[in-house]
């Protein structure tokens, strides 16, 4: 038991033990002069080291502590409802309303122009399809007119030839 306690003395001085282990060591040190003296020596050594080296808190702990303080500071209700934030939000809202109010006529005119252009585009596409749908009929008309012109030309040439030879 004495050896078990002796191994835990450094952890006891560094406050790294559970409550039950601390009580166990304190009870043992009341009856064991050797362990009590060793605890006292460890405490003195720790104090000497702190004064000699002035051990700073490691940077990792400082960064972690700074982040935690920042989070706690930013999430506090007083900071969130600061008058500066409320004023900035109000001014932003007024600015957005003013811009929308000013641009409303422009936006409405832009919508009208867009709708007109869409209507014109629809009409052009409809016209193209109507012309394309009428192409077969147009080709038939051209073919019939070509045949009529050829027939009339043939009749005219024949008539001309018959009058020249007879006369």
3D architecture notes:
- By secondary structure, this protein is mostly helical.
- The chain contains 6 helices and no strands.
- It is rod-shaped, with a radius of gyration of 52 Å.
Primary descriptors:
167 residues, 90% helix, 0% strand, 6 helices, mainly alpha
- Beta-strand portion reads under 5%
Sheet bearing the most strands, described?
none
Average pLDDT reading? 82
Helix content: over 70%
Please identify the oligomeric state: single chain
Series of H and E elements: HHHHHH
Radius of gyration: 52 Å
Structural class: mainly alpha
Entry summary:
By secondary structure, this protein is mainly α. It has helices at 2-13, 19-31, 33-53, 59-74, 77-80, 83-166. α1 crosses α2 (19-31).
Present the secondary structure layout.
Blueprint lengths: L1 H12 L5 H13 L1 H21 L5 H16 L2 H4 L2 H84 L1
Helix pairs in contact: 1-2, 1-3, 2-3
